[in-house]
Amino acid sequence: MSFQHAGVIGAGSWGTALALVLHGNGLHTTIWGHDAAHIANMRTRGENTAYLPDIKLPPTLGLADQLEDLRDCDLLLIVTPSKAVREVCARLFAAEPREGAVMLSCTKGVERGSGLRMSEIVAEQFPEHPVAVLSGPSHAEEVARKRPTCVVLGCKDAALGLRLQRAFSAPYFRAYTSDDVPGIELGGALKNIYALAAGMCDGLGLGDNAKAALITRALVELGRLGGAFGGKRETFMGLSGVGDLMVTCFSQHSRNRAVGERLGKGERLADVVSSMQMVAEGVPTTYSAHEYSVRHGIETPIIEQVKAILDGTVAPAEALARLLGRDPKAE
Length: 331
Hints:
Elements: E1 5-9, H1 13-24, E2 28-32, H2 36-45, E3 47-48, E4 52-56, E5 62-64, E6 75-78, H3 85-94, E7 102-105, H4 118-125, E8 131-135, H5 140-144, E9 149-154, H6 158-168, E10 173-178, H7 181-204, H8 208-229, H9 239-250, H10 255-264, H11 269-274, H12 282-296, H13 301-311, H14 316-324
Parallel strand pairs: 1-2, 1-6, 2-5, 6-7, 7-8, 9-10
Antiparallel strand pairs: 3-4, 8-9
Helix pairs in contact: 3-4, 7-8, 7-9, 7-10, 7-12, 8-9, 12-13, 13-14
């Protein structure tokens, strides 16, 4: 059975881009945002000027600032910053969504303290609802402009995975399916940490050799830590692993890479973050991943050095020297 009404919870760039995909595929689609003024501006201007300027929104695309407006949705996308997922899910639960509505987590992160993946937080709040995830190398700016993009949908229920695949598949948007939900989420979350490090390479002007070496070793570390979380190694060789790692470490659209570049040039983290309208998920995810790796005794030298830089206890150039100065060993 096809989905009829999709609700997108989050009126940022990614939420808007995904809403355009679903709306273009014929679903009645509504975007919800917590800021009534922002929603009103989108309605008046016919575009998301704050996050996706110059992308025209179809007049039939729904816009809402009340979660109750999503009660009839049979597909609900969670597309908020990771730090807001738990609170927004609690508010959505209070709004009494449709029985059996599918919850699709599109947020990349790991909760600090609990170490929970985003879909696990959603499932805690909605134990009676099917929960799936979406991830992959997919910058909102390009999706909204209908540039060719591939993503992967993670779902334990194969039939549900196919329903989601049909809902999202478009000539420019190809959706694959997988049953490795942990691997898909962790690839999407952890790569943001390594994008910070890649940006630091750019900020320090270290060149292509250093950046390629960093990203290669980051993929090894991602697989080691992601495997400890329960992900399959082959998943990290796919779209949500190496694919997302590549695009986030190299793209000019990448917020995390841009933050790392500014840190590499000597700016303070507090100044960088305060100047940004959107969230660089690699910052909170660094702390979540570090907590988990320490708790479980997993070797993550890149994450350790990124955390030290974010803490301000070591300069980016010194962190690089520490990584290069580690004891030699076989690859």
